Amino acid sequence: MSPCTKILPLAWLIVFFMLGTSFAEDSLILEEITVRGRQEAPQQETLSIREVRESPARDIGEALESVPGITSVNKGAIANDVVLRGLQRDNINVFLDGVRLHGGCPSRMDPPSFHFDFAEVDSIEIIKGPYDLRNPGSLGGMINAVSKTPPLGPSATVTGTYGSYGLVNLSASGSYASETANVLAGYAYKESDIPESGNGKLMTDIYPATSNNRYKPEDLDSKAYEINTFWIKGGGKVGPSEFSLNYSYQDAEHVLYPYLLMDADYDRTQRVNFTSSTTLPGSALEEINFQAYWNSVDHLMHDKYRVSSTPSMMVTRDVMMETDSTTKVYGTKLVAVAKLGTGQLDTGLDFYYHNWDATNISAMFNMYQPQPMLPDVDATNFGGFAKYTVPLSEQLKVIGGARIDFTDVEANDLSNARLTSLYQPYHSAPLSDSTDFTEVSGNLQLSWFPTEGIELFTGLASGVRPPDAQELYIGLQRPAMSTNWVGNPDLDATRNNQVDLGIKFSGDRYYLNTSVFYSSLDDFIYLVSVADPDGMGPLAKARSYRNIDAEMYGGELSGQYALPFDLYLRTTLSYVRGENRDTNIPLAEIPPLTGQVALRYDIGDFFIEATERFAQKQDRVDPGLGEDETSGWGVTDVKTGGNWGKWSATAGINNIFDKQYFSHLSYKRDPFASGIKVPETGFLAYLTLAYRY
Ligand SMILES: [Cu+2]
C-alpha cells in the first residue's frame, strides 16, 4: 500500500468525524455518564437499556457480564447464572420488580434471571454488598430488573435479532396509557442452534468418545433452546393511589446444558405481581407501598439426548435418569416512607413462602423407583426492617438500618427412615426434617461529598441468609460407586460482615469509580466431599455442605469518558480473592481478574464500537473439589449501528478472531456437573432491527 492510499481513507475519516461532530445530537452516552457519575453511589451499578439493546446477549445473565463485579456460570448456550463479587446462588438476590422467584431445577438450569425476558425490562439496578435491607437474604448483594412502564399515549416496539448458529431473538410489545389507566402487552420468542466454539466444534461436542454423558449423534446438532414468553400488565390511578397488576407466562423447551449430566425438556413459568403505591403529601407519612406476588415453575430434565439413556439390561425406558421438579413462591410486602426529623424513615414488613419439590428416577438405582430428591420442602420467612437516611450537612449523608428475619424450613416428604439411612451416616449431629433461624442484619453507610464531583463512600454491614432447601435437604442415592448427593440438615445461617470503601470522581464528561471491599464470611455454606462413612458400602462417598469460615476481598474499577471527536472510552476491571479460613485453601469457583476496554465513536444517530474483554488465568482453585486452573484469555467484539426516525439497526461481531476460550466458572466439579469444561461461543455475527413507535 502506498502512503497516499493509507492517508486518503484517514483523511476521509477525519472529514467524516468533523461532519458528524457538527451535526451531532446529544448522545445517550453523555446522559449515561451523568447518571452513573452523579446519581449512583459508588456501591451501585446499572446496566442501561441501551447496552442491552445493542448486545446479542441471549438472556439477562449474559448481558450483566459487562457490569463490573459481575460474572456468570455458563452451563450451555443460555441460562447464565449471575455471580456477584464471587458470590452466587442464594448468597445473592436476583429479582424482577422486587419479586422473589426461585428456579425449578436443583442444578440451577433455570436461575431466576432466566425467567424474565429483556423486552419486559427497562433497567437493571445492582447493589454490591449486604446493603439491601428491604429484602431478606441479600447477603452478597441484590440485582433488581425493573419492568417497563407504559409511556403516555399509544406506544409499540418490535425488535428482531438474527445471528450465527441460527440465533433468533424476536419481541413485540404495545401499550396505551392515559393519565388514569394504562395497559401493556408483549411477546418474545428466542431460539438458537448449538453454537460453535473457537475450535470450530459444537458446544455439545466436548465429551470423549468413551463418555456416557456425550450427546447421541442425532442430538449433537439439535436446537440449543426454544423459549416463548408472554406478558401483560395493567394499571391505573384512583385518588392518591396507583395500582399495577402483571401476569407473565414463559415456556422454555429443549434447553441443552452440556455442562450437566441432563438437559431440560421444559421449564414452564407463571408470574403474577400486584403493586400499589399511595402518596400522602403534606402528612408525616409520605408514602405507603404494598406488593403481593405469586409464581411457579414446572421443570423436567432427563438424559434422553445422551448416550447414558441407550437401552440396555438396566435402561428399559427412554431415559436412564429423569428429574421432575416444581417450585412455588408467594409473598407480600408493606413499606411506609415517612419524614422524621431532617431525614427519611423507611419501615417495612414482609413475608414469603417457597415450596420446592423434586422427584428423581434412575434406572441404575432401584429400577426407576422414585426418590424424593427435594422432599417437598417449605420455607417460610417473616421479616421487618427500618432504615433511616439523614443528611447531616450539604456534604455528608448517613444511612443506617436494621432488619430481623424469622425463617422456618420443613421437609414434608423426608421420612425418618430415609433421614437415618441416607443422611445421618455422613453427619455427626442428630438430624431433623425441620429447622428454623432468627437472624438480625444491619448496616451503616456514610457518603461524603467533600467538593463538587467527588463522592466518598464507606459502609459497614452485617448480612445474613439461612441455608436453602437444597443445602439442607437434597438427597439422591446414586448407583454403587457413584457419589451420593446429600444435604446437611444441621447447617447454620451464613453471616457476612463486610466493610466497603469507594470513591467516585465525576464531571460533565466523565466518571471514575473505585470500590474495594473485605468480607468475613462466618458459617459460609460450602460444598465438600464427604467420605463413605464405613468404607464398605452400600453407601458411597457423598457431596454435601458444611459451614466453614471464609473471607473474600477485592474491588472494582470502572469509568466512562467523553473524549474529543465524539469518542467515548469505557473501562472496567474486577477482582475478587476468596480463601477458606478453615483450611487456608482458595475457595472454589472464584472468578479471576476480569475487565473490558471499549472505544466508541457516537454522534447520537450513528455509532461504531470495539470492545476488548479479558480475564487473567485463575490458578487459585480448590483441588479438594477437583477444580482445575483456567487459562487467561482476551477476545475482541465490534459493533455498529444507527437510528433513522423510528427505526434502528445494530450489527456486530462478538469474538471476531474466533478464539477458543473458557470462562473459569463454566466448569464445576463432579457430580453437580459433568466435570468437562464447556467452551465459550466462537465467532458470532448478528444483526438487530428495531421499530419503536
Ligand atoms: Cu434441571
Structure report:
By secondary structure, this protein is mainly β. 8% of the residues lie in helices and 53% in strands. The strands form 3 sheets. It has a 22-stranded antiparallel β-barrel. The protein has a 4-stranded mixed beta sheet with strand order 1-5-6-4. Strands 2-3 form a two-stranded antiparallel sheet. The protein binds copper (II) ion. Copper (II) ion (CU) is lined by residues 105, 107, 109, 264, 299, 301.
The CATH architecture assignment turns out to be Beta Barrel
Number of strands: 31
- The helix content is under 10%
Radius of gyration: 26 Å
How much strand content do the residues show? Answer: over 45%
Which descriptor suits the 3D outline? globular
CATH superfamily: TonB-dependent receptor, beta-barrel domain
Q: In DSSP terms, counting alpha (H) and pi (I) runs of 4 or more, how many helices? A: 6
Largest sheet: 22 strands, antiparallel, barrel
CA(first)-CA(last) distance: 47 Å
Q: What are the bound molecules?
A: copper (II) ion
Main CATH class: Mainly Beta
